[in-house]
């Protein structure tokens, strides 16, 4: 007799009960006898068959264990999340993904009964209606949901909650790369000149000419700035976690870096410090000393989102093509690479972990650079 369907039928079966399908299978009891187990609630016969095949394979390999009575939500929140990186912002972002996208789709399912079909259905639902007001969730958010779930389920395997990770074999949702928005050199100069009298001119100029992240500038302290030596150290960040501003340090060693300031940037920062000292004198004892470089008139630090909102308003008033504050970083990197500054140098300036990351993000610059470099080489050789 051939193995396969007939063999599966001897050790398990599937039946339709009402509107759903149930899988039945046998495992060895404590005394060696055969004990029947079941799992129902499958929407299609195909889903029930897939579960049965995987379960029988686990039984045959000795990997099957009695399902624990813990839901996907309970495992994610009570067992996995506390083990995540101790950085407050990382844990807060994972908690948001779990609460907003994973739990509404899978939270009530028993962890031991979670299948690849359930995970794929989550991905499909998020793409179709997981966003605000029932619109589709963005590709990057869908991918993040899948990635967080995969990491958590792998931890469940390690702890013995489940014998296998249901996401294994599923393709991670892809993201279609789009060209980053950025300004030309002329547009960048026009904006810097337009905001030269703005009280946060130094913030915008550093973002555009050195590619600092919003969190890095929001967390910048005067103790990190040496204007006489023309150096700025990125050692602190200020981000949002659960709606509250959190001060921390850069996530990677590459993010903790020293950046050289030219005379123009030193001048911009000196002007900013003079303005801040004048505001401090005007407020007197009511001025709040936080040590931060970029604060409100009374010394209190605004939420990081404040800088993004002000930047977008200034861009609109300047009459320039609309870009986000984060696109100022893209502008800096793109212009630097177009000037043939080595990728390794640009990578260190931006705080990327490796030049490969820089090359991957700004691959749109490469074709033009290659064409121009080739033309210059021909002119050099052939005169």
Structural overview:
This protein is mostly helical. Mean pLDDT is 86; it is low at 1-9. Helices cover 51% and strands 11% of the residues. The chain has three domains: 5-61, no CATH class; 89-159, no CATH class; 185-375, Orthogonal Bundle (hpI Integrase, Chain A). Strands 1-2-3 form a three-stranded antiparallel beta sheet. Strand 6 and strand 7 form a beta hairpin. It is built from 15 helices and eight strands.
Write the layout of secondary structure elements.
Elements: H1 5-11, E1 12-17, E2 20-28, E3 34-42, H2 45-61, H3 72-80, H4 88-106, H5 116-129, H6 139-159, H7 185-194, H8 201-210, H9 214-218, E4 225-226, E5 231-234, E6 237-241, E7 244-248, E8 257-260, H10 263-283, H11 304-318, H12 325-338, H13 343-350, H14 355-361, H15 366-382
Antiparallel strand pairs: 1-2, 2-3, 4-5, 5-8, 6-7
Q: What's the helix-strand series?
A: HEEEHHHHHHHHEEEEEHHHHHH
How large is the radius of gyration? 28 Å
CATH level-4 homologous superfamily of the largest domain: Intergrase catalytic core
The structural class is mainly alpha
Overall pLDDT score = 86
Please identify the top-level CATH class of the largest domain: Mainly Alpha
Helix count? 15
